[in-house]
Amino acid sequence: MTDHIGPPDASILPRYSGIATFARLPMLDQAPAADIAVLGAPFDTGVSYRPGARFGPASVRAGSRLLRPYNPGLDVSPFQEKQVVDAGDIGLNPYNIGAAIETLQHEAQQFGARGTKLVTVGGDHTIALPLLRAAAAKHGPVALLHFDAHLDTWDTYFGEPYTHGTPFRRAVEEGVLDTEAVCHVGTRGPLYGRKDLDEDERLGFGIITSADVLRRGVDEVSDALRARIGNRPLYVSIDIDVLDPAHAPGTGTPEAGGMTSRELLEILRGLRGTKLVGADVVEVAPAYDHAEITAIAAAHVTYDLVSLLALCGDADG
Ligand SMILES: N=C(N)NCCCC(=O)O
Ligand SMILES: [Zn+2]
Ligand SMILES: [Zn+2]
């Protein structure tokens, strides 16, 4: 348990030194095996508005260098409990969305076959579909908590079915989600029409809006989510635009009226005890960021997801 390779001692090698891996963790090839990997998926060909999330993984790594090894929010030292590594970036074809989806699904399944759980850093939200396919290939249809300003259950954009606004409709159609336990959290902002909500409900999704989080508070929200998920294998997908633009300006489709980073982190910590099998953090676009606000928020969210995975038992493989 304590012989895992962790970050170098920050009192010997200052945090701002060296090439940035996530939380200064070893790279995949520096550890004999990995229980948990942070994987970069630099891809933004699926976006409908501002591009730039292809640079998300590099910015989240840079924003993660101050993370320390003990997480008091969850009372765990994740890098001691489990061998956690940075698995680098997957090379994804920027000119062919279908090929990129296929590549990422294949790579994610390889990690799953080796018993490595992934927290994937995007990239735009298109990448959730291949990651959910890989999770379902291993665990069967998974429960989903989707933190986002947007529903991302639209049908097509410009006639195209694979975009960052459509992954969860495709996932339901493909049967990779357990539709008894799928929920959006943090949604807000104008829609194309009332039918967006009707169709989303028909697909099986529950919704806890950003305003609901404000009114109900984080503990009640976490309790409700845990009750909905139960003991099912759970995938958590976090679009950083779930945060208010004040907390995450560096993203492609910002919407006013979002959650604070404190609320998001507390809701995540309330998911302790669920059977998390994988997660992603997407839509960080550093060209619109300031003072690493978004990168730091995404790094902390990623760290809490790694911590939740480190707290899960090994029994589920
Ligand atoms: N940021 C994500 N994933 N989706 C936003 C799609 C919103 C739109 O184009 O209307
Ligand atoms: Zn979004
Ligand atoms: Zn999204």
From TrEMBL:
**Keywords, in A-Z order:** Hydrolase, Manganese, Metal-binding
Q: Which residues make up the binding site for Mn(2+)?
A: 125, 148, 150, 152, 239, 241
Q: Which cofactor does it need?
A: Mn(2+)
Top-level taxon: Bacteria
On whether Manganese is a keyword of this UniProt record, the answer is: yes
* UniProt GO MF annotations: agmatinase activity; metal ion binding
List the Gene3D superfamilies hit by this protein, alphabetically: Ureohydrolase domain
Cofactor note, please?
Answer: Binds 2 manganese ions per subunit.
Which GO terms are recorded in the biological process aspect for this UniProt protein?
A: putrescine biosynthetic process from arginine, via agmatine
Q: Which PROSITE patterns match?
A: ARGINASE_1, ARGINASE_2
InterPro entries for this protein: Agmatinase-rel, Ureohydrolase, Ureohydrolase_dom_sf, Ureohydrolase_Mn_BS
Q: Which residues form a coiled coil?
A: none
Similarity section: Belongs to the arginase family. Agmatinase subfamily.
The protein in question is named Agmatinase
